[in-house]
Amino acid sequence: MEKVNFFNSELFHKNAEKAFLIHKNKITELLPAADIQHVGSSAIPNSITKGDIDIQVRVSAEQFSKAIELLSILYERNDESVKTDTFRAFKDDTSNPPLGVQLTVIDSEFDFFWKFREVLLANNKYRDAYDNLKKEYEAKSMDAYREAKDIFFQRLMETPEFKDYDK
User: Fold this and answer.
1) What PANTHER family does the database record attribute to this sequence (predicted)?
2) Cβ(118)–Cβ(165) under 8 Å?
3) Whole-angstrom Cα distance, residue 113 to residue 56?
4) pLDDT tens digit string along 38-88?
């Protein structure tokens, strides 16, 4: 059973930001029209993180198929993740720090990672609740943590703060 461990992002934030910029530059070379966002806990100063970074690559529906092809040159396809006509996941577990890339069509059902970041950055109560959830799952099952995290984010999507980004 894979276990999850967390770190305070203060120890990690500068390296995460540096890694994000390196990957952003690589992606921009292949997809100059893409909106590339640093998302996930490493994008939120003073939060608790697993020690990886997440990037959301937002493209138009017309660019999506080509973006899959081009990102596959840089990163491994994450076949364990959801695949739809508007979402694909990629990863690089050998990167330091490990990397997850979420490719989304702009304004599609999976175009929410950047919204989560914005809500957590602007609202201490949600950020604290998310950090507390992580503390609760420290050294426990990764699958159980992911399930609890999914529930947390489903609830976050129902908040007025999150819905403000749908306007």
Assistant:
1) GRPB DOMAIN PROTEIN (AFU_ORTHOLOGUE AFUA_1G01530), GRPB FAMILY PROTEIN
2) yes
3) 7
4) 999 999 988 999 989 999 999 999 999 999 999 999 999 999 899 999 999
Tell me the pLDDT tens digit for each residue of 109-141: 999 999 999 999 999 999 999 999 999 999 999
| CATH class as words, domain 7-166 | alpha beta
What's the DSSP call for residue 62?
A: G
145's CB contacts (< 8 A; 6+ apart) are: 4, 134, 137
Q: How far is CA 114 from CA 3, 12, 166, in A?
A: 26, 20, 12
How many Å is the Cα radius of gyration of the chain?
A: 15
In the chain, domain spans:
7-166
pLDDT at 19: 94
pTM of the predicted structure, to 2 decimals: 0.94
Residues 56/113, Cβ–Cβ less than 8 Å: yes
Return d(Cα 42, Cα 8) in angstroms, integer: 9
